Amino acid sequence: MRISSKKRVIGIALLTAVAVMGDAMLFIVLPLYWEDFGLTALWQIGVLLSVNRFVRLPLNPLVGLFYKHFQVRTGVFIAVGLACLTTMSYGILQDFWLLLLVRALWGVAWSLLRLGGYLTVIEAADDSNRGRFVGLYNGLWGIGGLIGMLAGGILVDYTSVSFVTVLFALFALVAFPLVWLLVPVKAPEKKEQQQSQQYTSWFTSRVALVLLTSLGMGFIVFGLFASTLSPLIERSYKADWTGAQITIGAATLAGVIQAVRWGWDPFVAPWIGKCLDRSTSKIRLLLIPLFSGSILLFLLGYIQSLFLLFLLLLVFQFTSTFFVTTTDTFATEVASQSNRVKVITAHTIAVDLGAALGPLVAFYLLEFYSISIVYFLAASFLMLLGFMWLYQLCRNAQKDVTLHRETRVK
């Protein structure tokens, strides 16, 4: 049975959503309930939230090689199985070193899922719909983050960590046979061999800047912000809210804030992708999340009012969706014009490196400085990245003017 390009993207995205639920829950729950996991120090939180990403750094090239010889379906089968195993282990194991091993196994699963998803999008998309397909893919797998962060944060406040992890593991177990239906077998292609011969050098200055942006996106969105959201809210939220005999803790509030983004991503991300497809200057659109995100991070670090904090967090979540969709679109675009496996593998490595450094750097700094300083440094980094792209935009404009003048002279 032949599956359309759009349905292929939807299939891999939904399976990724189920697999990522346990990991998403951990980012909300672990910073607040770390003693329930058997941890003894704050730095262990950063290590557990980061180790899966560090594991993926050497793994991503191997996964790229894996997908040159095996079907995406095979990789997804392995990934969903590992997701079920690791999610259940979070609530059973009470030892830091065992949890470290489990988080490393999750890194293997995510490498298989993420690279398989990117390759599916690159294969299915063209210049007219690339942004829309990237947005669709990111938006749909984000549903898993929505359930993991929102339901995970709420349920842990009322039940236990072990109950939630077993529940999410059962979801992954049920999804395992669906891989056969949702991920089709793709016929071998000769196009990849032709690309390898045609493109002798894939690492250009344009690719380098895109990869630096991938690093920044992973560091800010998936690393630093995701891992410090609970402590950020807890700073302004000194006590639980109680109303109608329902207690709302900081974990629940953090889950709601993160879940808002995952909730609107299936609608907002494809819309942003369409805007990118129609735009004549994608760099101008990229500057929006870079500069606005920098300003928002600075404000988030110093705002004490709970109401203003929630308002700015919602705006920043929209900016994050914009940032992720734009960066992934840039990456898939340059990959489609060069050696796609090498470029998209480098992109995943850059995102993973940033996402791994985010929690590690954040919680290390929190041992010595306030969360305001951490967010100020993050804002400065994002601002610097924005100026680099602004310089690139000016260079492109200057080249266009020079080319136009030469054409007129001729």
UniProtKB/TrEMBL annotation:
Q: Does the keyword Transmembrane apply?
A: yes
Q: Which PROSITE patterns match?
A: MFS
* SUPFAM superfamilies with a match to the protein in the record: MFS general substrate transporter
What InterPro entries does its record include? MFS, MFS_dom, MFS_trans_sf, MFS_Transporters
Tell me where in this chain the Major facilitator superfamily (MFS) profile domain is found.
Answer: 8-398
Q: In its keyword annotation, does this UniProt entry include Membrane?
A: yes
Which GO molecular function terms does the record list?
A: transmembrane transporter activity
Segments spanning the bilayer are 12-34, 40-59, 71-90, 96-113, 134-155, 161-183, 203-226, 246-264, 285-303, 309-331, 343-366, 372-391
UniProt keyword terms in alphabetical order: Cell membrane, Membrane, Transmembrane, Transmembrane helix, Transport
Q: Pfam families attached here?
A: MFS_1 (PF07690)
Q: How does it sit in the membrane?
A: Multi-pass membrane protein
One of the record's GO cellular component terms: plasma membrane
What is the name listed in the Swiss-Prot or TrEMBL entry for this protein? MFS transporter
Q: What species was this sequence derived from?
A: Halalkalibacter okhensis
